[in-house]
């Protein structure tokens, strides 16, 4: 399904007219030149995982809105990308006529993709599992992902990047569970742990 068709179907399901210019702004954001992983490729993979998970319709709509916005702002030089992305969602979804409660829930979901605490709701668990599904990708795709992340941090010295990257990956590996939903745990937990262990073991 194309991004345009998906966007139109989502707003039809929400019972609202298409917000003028919002899709173009989001697609442009994911196409920014400094991005190598946090791109339309990642967004398309997220939607594929959402469809695979077969979430209930009501849950899927809010999670899908959050997916559209979860990396809408991405700048490796700052630490508040999730907050900026959530603020964008809150502002533009409200302007498009969606109820305040729904907008706030979507913004909350976007914030959960900071992955700095266990997800606090079933929707957040689904969203964060989708965002982390790349960790359990086939080896070739996981290796590509690692190269893409390195490209986004090309300005960081190799030795410093290698150390920080190992810390991040080790943090996921040390969790009791990487994935919080049964669907993703069953399909990706084992592969994710193998990918992470291999990446950590690679020489810097």
Automatic annotation (TrEMBL):
The protein's UniProt keywords, in alphabetical order, are: Receptor
Against InterPro entries, the record matches this protein to:
HD_phosphohydro
The lineage's top-level taxon is: Bacteria
PANTHER family named among the record's database cross-references: HD PHOSPHOHYDROLASE FAMILY PROTEIN-RELATED, PTHR21174
Q: What is this protein called?
A: N-methyl-D-aspartate receptor NMDAR2C subunit
